[in-house]
Amino acid sequence: MTVSIEKTDDVWTIVHDRPAARNSVDADHAKALMEAFLEFDESPAKAAVFWGKGGNFCAGWDLKMAATLSDPDLLQRYMDKHAFPLGSAPSTLGPMGPSRLELSKPVIGAIEGAAVAGGMELALWCDIRVMAETAYMGVYCRRWGITLMDGGTVRLPRLVGQGKALEIALTGRKVEAEECYRIGLAEKIAPDGKARAVAEAMAHEIARFPQEAVLADRRSIIETRGMPVREALKVEWANGTEAIRREGTAGAGRFRDGAGRHGDFSKI
Question: What DSSP assignment string belongs to 173-216?
């Protein structure tokens, strides 16, 4: 099995489990990843961690599989199968699996070793990235004439700006964890071998909060990107007021009754 899920009540860890291929993604692996994340999104779990077994997050699209598509008819059938949906149709399977999904709950990438080419695109798809000190990213598919097709050209400039995105994408160079953190490709650096543990601790921290507000703020941050300020404020207001109705006033009542006083938020 190329994908496994380790579940607790609140946090699921979705595991790439194809270490012999550095967790590169072929057609079966892509389908299994997408199914795992759809299962998570429909579950009661509150946050997910995305981690690669065997010392690497993901080495990208399986180029041995890609080499079998040299026949034009085979390639066309593959591209037709993964064609992006028109209009408001549900997201389809991307070459790397879940890269087109717009989940309703947070995903934290736990990155050890390589997150390159399509693996970098999967890392960029996550809400938050925790990288081990010696982990790295890079558009390594530049070497083989393979394009970014799982959101890399869209998400990379949104995180680091157009100029830096162009420099990283066009040179295909290695981007080490410290630089990733400095330019906005990673939100936290962990000791080697500890990215998963740090990401899971963060996921549990997120999961312990009242979830209506967590999800409303996440939704507003994602939905308002690129909007004019006035329109973005309207979206924020709509998302926020619903969460306040559902749980915010009750939370204020807990504070009134003594919870959280003197900076103690251990019981919220």
Answer: --EEHHHHHHHTS-SEEE-TT-HHHHHHHHHHHHHTS-HHHHHH
- Asked whether the domain spanning 211-263 has the same topology as the one spanning 3-207, the reply is no
- How many contiguous H segments (helices) and E segments (strands) does the chain have? 11, 9
| Domain residue limits, the chain | 3-207, 211-263
Distance CA 127, CA 109 (A): 8
In CATH, the number for domain 3-207 is 3.90.226.10
pTM of the model: 0.92
Token pair of 54, please?
């065997």
Q: What percent of the chain has pLDDT over 90?
A: 75
CATH class of 211-263: mainly alpha
In this structure, the number of other CB atoms found within 10 A of the CB of residue 22 comes to: 20
Could you say which residues of the chain have pLDDT below 70? Answer: 86-90, 248-268
Q: What's the distance, CA 17 to chain centroid?
A: 17
